[in-house]
Amino acid sequence: MAELQEEHVPLKSRVWVSIADASTATLQGMVGSGALTYFFTRWRGLDPSMAAIVWLLFGVWNAVNDPLFGWISDRTQNKLGRRRPYIRYGAPLIALAFISCWIEWPGTAGNQTLMFFQLLIALFAFDTLYTAIATSIYVMPYEMALSNKARGSILLWKVIFTIFPTAIPLVVIPIIQPGPGESAATFQIVMTAFGVMMGALVFISTYFYEEKHF
Q1: CATH: 1.20.1070, 1.20.1250, 1.20.120, 1.10.10. Which one for 23-205?
Q2: How far apart are CA 204 and CA 214, in angstroms?
Q3: Disulfide: which of 22, 66, 149, 156 matches 161 by Cβ 3.0-4.6 Å?
């Protein structure tokens, strides 16, 4: 019992798992804040009713994939553990999926059907990867430590870092969001940079913490 009370998780591990958590949440915040719908409907010209259908289908999938990926992750056997493989190898993929949300796929400009499918595919791909990574990060404190005290020290840092995914979309999106008829180049460059940067942080983070009790 004394050993559990004295259990210690290195500061770098607590900070980096919190960075990973904040990075994925930041990307999710940018997609889910309404910016993606605005970009497709107000700037690219997708019919709002078609965008609404995409989000309706997404809601159904979202209700399924959360428990599904939790179940898959619980049964994963890998030398990195049950959670880290999804975080490490999902990081570059979620960066690409995020970036794909903000670029015009070839042939989609002005085509309602193709824009509909781009939004549908990009949103589903992003959310699937987000779920796989975020659910793994969510349970990492319980994989990194056994005692409530040690786990609490990790969760404290995660709470501190929530300021970033809360503030960044609220501050950045209104500044860079293009109006109808305006160039979206700056917006797309910034969003691409965020995708690359957040993906890199998530990937790098996996080298600073490990699963000890799986």
Answers
A1: 1.20.1250
A2: 21
A3: 22
Q: In the chain, what is the straight-line distance between the N-terminal and C-terminal CA atoms, in Å?
A: 20
* CA separation for the pair 144, 81 (Å, rounded): 11
Domain ranges in the chain are: 23-205
Look-up: residue for tokens 């659910």?
135
Residues 133/119, Cβ–Cβ less than 8 Å: no
Please name the residue that has the structure tokens 């997708």. Answer: 46
- CA dist 94 and 76 (Å) reads 20
**Tokens describing residue 175:** 């500044």
For every one of its 214 residues, what pLDDT tens digit does the chain have, with 9 covering 90 and above?
444 456 889 999 999 999 999 999 999 999 988 899 999 999 999 999 999 999 999 989 988 888 888 788 878 888 888 899 999 999 999 999 999 999 999 999 999 999 999 999 999 999 999 999 999 999 999 999 888 888 999 999 999 999 999 999 999 999 999 988 899 999 999 999 999 999 999 999 999 999 886 4
Helical pair 11-32 and 148-160, crossing angle rounded to 10 deg: 50
Q: Say which residues have a Cβ less than 8 Å from residue 111's Cβ, sequence separation at least 6.
A: none
Distance CA 196, CA 193 (A): 5
Buried b (16+ CB within 10 A) or exposed e, 87-110: bbebbbbbbebbbbbbeeeeebee
